[in-house]
TrEMBL record, chain A:
Residues 7-311 form the Prenyltransferase alpha-alpha toroid domain. One of its GO terms (molecular function) is metal ion binding. The keyword Zinc applies. It comes from Spathaspora passalidarum (strain NRRL Y-27907 / 11-Y1). Belongs to the protein prenyltransferase subunit beta family. Its cofactor is Zn(2+). It comes from the Eukaryota. This is Geranylgeranyl transferase type-2 subunit beta. Its EC number is 2.5.1.60. Binds 1 zinc ion per subunit. It catalyses: geranylgeranyl diphosphate + L-cysteinyl-[protein] = S-geranylgeranyl-L-cysteinyl-[protein] + diphosphate.
UniProtKB/TrEMBL annotation, chain B:
PANTHER family: GERANYLGERANYL TRANSFERASE TYPE-2 SUBUNIT ALPHA (PTHR11129:SF2), PROTEIN FARNESYLTRANSFERASE ALPHA SUBUNIT/RAB GERANYLGERANYL TRANSFERASE ALPHA SUBUNIT (PTHR11129). InterPro entries: Prenyl_trans_a. It comes from Spathaspora passalidarum (strain NRRL Y-27907 / 11-Y1). This is Geranylgeranyl transferase type-2 subunit alpha. The keyword Repeat applies. PROSITE patterns: PFTA (PS51147). The keyword Lipoprotein does not apply.
């Protein structure tokens, strides 16, 4: 057993204070604020402490990031829409309100249009109108449409074709066709296949699950993102969620991983870092804690996390996922 | 998102001091941000506004909205009908210089790489792009970090565009041109893996290039100047033997290296190789490999008193391929006994080996 405890209260305080240390670096990270908010809210929701942040203020902030010109959410007021901040905004809003009542039907129509128009002829998605293509954006777009209950086969099928072109000879996935395998890209590809009911495409052999299980390294017990790289807490999420989707969580040593995540906590100030004794941030805090939820949510009295959406199951169980075409 | 930054817990006192010291910087940053947003909202596309985006982006290269605005300014000033093409090309080349300086400081910033691509395609539209220069740039960046993800991806992207451009210039020699470029890339991976066997980024590229080069070699009359270099690509069997020979050194030197084994698995299972020669030849290769790995494993056993995890995994893998060829029975007593050893010496992945022992999943 691991001898480090989980310092829940410190982490709650850590999330709350994210917004109060307004150093120069804080302002430099405005472009990540919406993602940061999602990481913070997901952390709190997972440890049953969503109330620690004022709901009305959070929702107001998100709505203030609406970019009416393009019809998506930016990462901060007046920032341009991007698919990454748009998904984060939708995730937080849906954690608060399953019906998404704060999004008017006019906005919803614009959102769907914004996301769909990012899809390219080969099925891939660009992050915004400036053309960067990456399997991350495919997942982000598919997940966002799914959250809006607006996913259709016409969108999903070509996206899945693109994802499968990104599979490599090691069984794993990269950011575009021909790109080297990387654990974070595995999550977005497997996640897309899971949302679109296409897991059978990768379930014929054990290559992918084997590759994922090889990410766990000694002596730390943490996961790395590629062969011969250092372990890092965020891969606890990218790798374990993928294994969970493939029903192969038991192919790694969960107790050792748990120990690694706990050892990367800052016991004094709260928060979790990439590796023990490194600087903490909200990103690693979120993926450390969601990782712990995947390992044993009951033991920690956490909420169970959905490995496909990285949101509490309590929320995702209401997803219709596909657009109801009969209505 | 912070990686590789040491944790320093500073006192509340020091935090306050830093904050006070930051105030001026913050004020300047916020004023500049507000000013730029105003300019943008008023559709201002001037050289002054452009210069302001430079200042802000040097402070914060992650500010994607400002990169977007910067591109809009460029498009509005330099793209209208009648605008001087030379001027725009000059400005875009200056952009590439600025971006390069920033990339050296922030090699993992997606937005900077993204802006570089955008500039290049603007230059393509002007017929002024210099892909060979880009190629030199990325080669240098990869020297600094052998496994930078963005760097390798960028290299493939540049090579792809060099291919397109070269073929467009001389379409009748398309395949010869492609062959030459791919052979150069193949040689590059040879250099990279020979200097570091665990550079999987290079193995990955190599594995992708081999079938493509093979296909080209057999589609054209190979010019005399390449004859020597393409000899290896006569048939998949020769390639296989050559590659296995190459990783042999790596196996002896560091059998823990997962990069090599991943490549090994590919060599022995991909249709490109397995469909290209007879069952007898295949079995001979497998038996030879089994001998090599068993020998390394014995050496490891002498040194460490136990099987080497990766050797044992690969023995299981290779034996299973042999069994499949010979009888079809896969989960033999021998394989089972190896799996049981793995459960002991590689306990992290115990669950996998147990599934394999119970026959719930396959061995390869
Ligand atoms: Zn990380």
């Amino acid at each position: 057993m691991t001898d480090v405890t989980f310092v829940k209260d410190k982490h709650i305080q850590y999330v709350i204070e994210q917004d109060s240390h307004r150093s120069f670096e804080y302002w430099l990270s405005e472009h990540l604020r919406m993602n940061g908010l999602y990481w913070g809210i997901t952390t709190l929701a997972t440890i049953n402490s969503l109330d620690a942040l004022p709901k009305a203020e959070v929702i107001d902030f998100i709505l203030s990031c609406w970019d009416d010109k393009s019809g998506g959410f930016g990462s901060f007021p007046k920032h341009d829409s991007h698919i990454l901040s748009t998904l984060s905004a939708l995730q937080v809003l849906r954690i608060y309100d399953n019906e998404l009542t704060m999004i008017s039907s006019e906005k919803r129509t614009k959102l769907v249009k914004f996301i769909k128009e990012l899809q390219l002829p080969d099925g891939s998605f660009q992050g915004d109108r400036f053309g960067e293509v990456d399997t991350r954006f495919v997942y982000t777009a598919i997940s966002a449409l799914s959250l809006l209950d607006e996913l259709t086969k016409e969108i999903a099928d070509p996206a899945v074709d693109f994802i499968m072109k990104c599979r490599n000879f090691d069984g794993s996935f990269g950011m575009v066709p021909g790109a080297e395998s990387h654990a974070a890209q595995v999550f977005v590809c497997v996640g897309t296949l899971a949302i679109t009911d296409n897991l059978h495409l990768i379930n014929q052999d054990i290559k992918l699950a084997s590759w994922l299980s090889e990410r766990q390294v000694l002596p730390s017990g943490g996961f790395n993102g590629r062969p011969e790289k250092l372990p890092d807490v965020c891969y606890s999420w990218w790798v374990l969620s993928s294994l969970a989707i493939l029903n192969k969580k038991h192919w790694v040593d969960l107790e050792k991983l748990e120990g690694f995540i706990l050892s990367a906590q800052d016991l004094k100030e709260g928060g979790i870092s990439d590796r023990p004794d490194n600087a903490t941030d909200i990103y690693h805090t979120c993926f450390g804690i969601t990782g712990l939820s995947l390992i044993d949510w009951k033991k920690y009295n956490f909420k169970e996390i959905d490995p496909i959406y990285c949101m509490p199951v309590e929320v995702t169980k209401n997803f219709k996922k596909w657009k109801n075409l009969s209505s | 998102m912070q990686h590789n930054v040491k944790r320093v817990n500073i006192s509340a006192e020091l935090k306050k001091l830093k904050l006070e010291k930051d105030q001026l910087k913050i004020k300047r940053y916020q004023e500049l941000t507000a000013k730029l947003f105003d300019l943008r909202d008023n559709n201002t596309y001037t050289q002054d506004a452009f210069n302001e985006t430079t200042t802000l982006l040097l402070m914060n290269p992650e500010f994607y909205t400002v990169w977007n605005y910067r591109r809009e300014i460029l498009s509005n000033i330099y793209k209208p009908v009648g605008a001087n093409v030379d001027d725009y090309a000059q400005v875009l080349n200056d952009e590439l210089q600025l971006v390069l300086q920033q990339l050296k400081k922030f090699p993992k910033c997606y937005w900077i790489w993204n802006h570089r691509r955008w500039c290049l395609f603007e230059l393509v539209a002007l017929h002024r792009v210099n892909w060979m220069y880009e190629f030199a740039v990325v080669s240098k960046l990869l020297e600094l970090d052998q496994r930078n993800f963005h760097g390798w991806q960028y290299r493939r992207f540049i090579v792809e565009n060099i291919e397109k451009e070269s073929v467009a210039k001389d379409p009748s020699h398309e395949k010869v041109i492609l062959l030459k470029i791919k052979l150069d890339e193949f040689d590059y991976t040879t250099t990279k893996v020979q200097s570091d066997f665990s550079n999987f980024s290079a193995w990955h590229n190599r594995g992708n290039l081999i079938p493509k080069i093979y296909k080209l070699v057999h589609e054209i009359e190979v010019p005399a100047e390449f004859k020597e270099r393409v000899k290896l690509f006569d048939n998949p069997y020769d390639i296989l033997i050559h590659e296995l020979d190459m990783i042999k050194t790596g196996i002896y030197m560091s059998p823990e290296d997962t990069s090599i084994w991943s490549y090994y698995n590919w060599l022995l299972t991909d249709d490109f190789f397995t469909k290209a020669y007879s069952k007898e030849e295949y079995l001979k290769v497998l038996h030879n490999q089994l001998e090599v790995i068993s020998e390394v494993n014995e050496l490891e056993k002498e040194d460490n008193g136990q099987d080497n995890i990766w050797c044992l995994k690969s023995i299981i893998f290779t034996k299973t391929l042999i069994n499949k060829q010979q009888r079809g029975e896969v989960l033999t007593d021998e394989i089972k006994s190896y799996l049981k050893i793995l459960i002991k010496i590689d306990p992290l992945r115990k669950g996998k080996y147990e599934d394999q022992l119970r026959g719930v999943v396959g061995i390869v």
